[in-house]
Amino acid sequence: EALISYQEGIQILLNYSKSLTDEVKKTHFLSTIEKYITRAEELKILSEKKNVHERITIENNSIGYSYETIFQKYLDSNVFNVEIKDPHIRTLQQCKNLLCFCELLVKCCENLKTVFLLTTEDSTTDQKLWLEDLKSGLKSDFKVELTIQYTTALHDRAIVLSNGIVIKIDRGLDYFQVDDDDDDHDHDDHDHEDEDNEDEDNKDEDNKDEAGEQEEKLSISGHYDLDLCPCHKTIIEIFRKEKT
């Protein structure tokens, strides 16, 4: 309520300042408005922190942080739709990460109907083939519709559940240490920007490593135990989205 009051007050002052002809008064009002804007931003940050349910810091090389261990308690029969925004669902291993997360969804969310994925496109791998395999399996075996949308401008990582839970992971789903992902993107856990200049030689090596697995199909079969997989350092925040 306080944040809304500040926002309304700022708008009133802005509208009034436009009618002022006295430069001294106008400068005074603009200075006051700047202070209110700063305070409103502080209140917004406090409001977001208040809604945080859990904050998990995963240290480098630690184990025991599978999707099931962390997220299962937030997945229930009230989850009908899931939105996943993650720019790094491109390599075979990253697509397998998505597969593992979808396994957890269909196991825990009995009323799940749709999964929406927004990611970046990678024409140097069989990304589209792998994701289409996953889409087909979800539809035929679990009656879950996977919608995939590609974009060239995506930096934020977020998973939004229809029960109001929002999951933000610094590294997205790709926080496990797997060889063919090591060169795929920046390992700085505070850097939310994609690498603009990937090392082409390393990328070629990654593609060669995956060449023998190009024909592999992704299907929900439950044969991964990520609790045993070492992790990269990352931070996970889980909070409840305010109703509007």
Automatic annotation (TrEMBL):
<feature type="region of interest" description="Disordered">
    <location>
        <begin position="180"/>
        <end position="219"/>
    </location>
</feature>
<feature type="compositionally biased region" description="Basic and acidic residues">
    <location>
        <begin position="205"/>
        <end position="218"/>
    </location>
</feature>
<protein>
    <recommendedName>
        <fullName>MITD1 C-terminal phospholipase D-like domain-containing protein</fullName>
    </recommendedName>
</protein>
<dbReference type="Pfam" id="PF16565">
    <property type="entry name" value="MIT_C"/>
</dbReference>
<dbReference type="InterPro" id="IPR032341">
    <property type="entry name" value="MITD1_C"/>
</dbReference>
<feature type="compositionally biased region" description="Acidic residues">
    <location>
        <begin position="180"/>
        <end position="204"/>
    </location>
</feature>
<dbReference type="InterPro" id="IPR036181">
    <property type="entry name" value="MIT_dom_sf"/>
</dbReference>
<dbReference type="InterPro" id="IPR052817">
    <property type="entry name" value="MIT_domain_contain_protein1"/>
</dbReference>
<dbReference type="InterPro" id="IPR038113">
    <property type="entry name" value="MITD1_C_sf"/>
</dbReference>
<feature type="domain" description="MITD1 C-terminal phospholipase D-like">
    <location>
        <begin position="64"/>
        <end position="179"/>
    </location>
</feature>
